[in-house]
Amino acid sequence: MPRHALFPLPDARGGWSLFLDLDGTLLELIDDPDQVIADEVLRDLLARVAERLDGRLAIVSGRSIAQLDLILGPIAHLVALSGSHGNEHRWQGVSAHPARPRALDEAYVRLCEFADAQPGVLVEDKSYGVALHYRRAPAVEGEAQAFVAALAQALDLQYQPGKMMSELRMPGGDKGKAVRALMARAPMAGTRPLFVGDDDTDEAGFEAARDLCGAGVLVGHREPTAATYSLADPAAVRAWLAAIAA
């Protein structure tokens, strides 16, 4: 499907709800995911967008809600949050947190053993997932992907590839389910969703937005995709958000 610049879309303030991925969408990807933090400019921008959209703003991320709280600061309590690829939610004072599968603890140990033997490889432990990052060691990408995929099958976990990372996560959730769940509740119910994301994990969000008469917005360049529109990079996303907030 050909993709177009975002700006021909109707004004996002009029009858739209906005769903934003975090890493690679609002924030540039960096080597160490534990060092990611939202700057004050972004925090202020998200607060202004939430106000302009009358609360119809959600952050939908593979990060856990605990991580999102640390990264975003106080704004995390002013918007809808869906973390861990749609497996946990917090909005309007209601939280949903399922039990963490024990298999993730074993996965963490096994991934740490792999990382210890590969200089530059990092392990990120989340509430409902464990990720192996090899941005600092690109030569091990093939080996790492094969190892994580085999481990997913052995431990009955879901394998999720990403940009220079491979993740094992709790089965059953995805960003599309997060969009559908939030769109069923006021004030998003009855509006059209825009989902903005940058990688494979966001495709389910693009599909859900399309199915609900909205649209997906891909940040960067990748094919194939269910997104209809595109923005070049996180800086372009911020510029578009600033136009909404103005």
Shape: globular
Beta-strand content estimate: 15-25%
Report the order of strands and helices.
EEHEHEEEHEEHEEHEHEEH
Could you tell me how far the N terminus lies from the C terminus, measured between alpha carbons in angstroms? 31 Å
Please work out how many helical segments DSSP would assign.
7
What do the pLDDT scores average to? 90
CATH superfamily of the largest domain: HAD superfamily/HAD-like
Helix content: 25-40%
What gyration radius follows from the Cα positions, in whole Å? 17 Å
CATH class wording of the largest domain = Alpha Beta
Helix/strand-derived class?
Answer: alpha/beta
CATH fold-level assignment of the largest domain? Rossmann fold
What's the total number of strands?
A: 13
Spatial arrangement of strands, main beta sheet: 1-13-12-11-2-3-4-5-6
Structure keywords:
Rossmann fold; 22% strand; nine-stranded mixed beta sheet; Alpha-Beta Plaits; alpha/beta; four-stranded antiparallel beta sheet; 7 helices; globular; 246 residues
Structure commentary:
This protein has 246 residues and is of the alpha/beta class. The chain has 2 domains: 4-97 and 173-245, HAD superfamily/HAD-like (Rossmann fold), CATH 3.40.50; 103-169, Alpha-Beta Plaits, CATH 3.30.70. The protein contains 7 helices and 13 strands. The strands form 2 sheets. A 9-stranded mixed sheet has the order 1-13-12-11-2-3-4-5-6, sandwiched between helices. A 4-stranded antiparallel sheet has the order 7-8-10-9, with helices on one face. The two termini are 31 Å apart.
In short:
This protein is 33% helix and 22% strand.
